[in-house]
Amino acid sequence: MGVRRRRSFNQDFKLRAVWLVLAENRSVNDVASELGVLPKLIYDWVRKFQTDPDEAFPSKGKLPPTDDRLRALERENAQLRAEKAILKKALFIFSDPNVQS
Question: How big is the CA angle at 48 (ends 45 and 52), to the nearest 5 degrees?
Fold first, then answer.
């Protein structure tokens, strides 16, 4: 018995499916059978598109702009924490009266 690979669909494919449902007023089941996907996927894509059309289907490997910004801020925060820890150690070393210079 072969291993089934999970199919992935690009942004254009999803937008085409959503367009067929919304603009051409076709049923989800009809579009799903035409495109060879499960109706649940089409329902999910339509819901995501209606919720936020600009961020509905980010390109493969790309995050929505809000998530991308959050990751950048988290990286910056981690870098600043590391720099702060280094400065604390340096301050301790230079302010220690037992260290002879």
Answer: 140
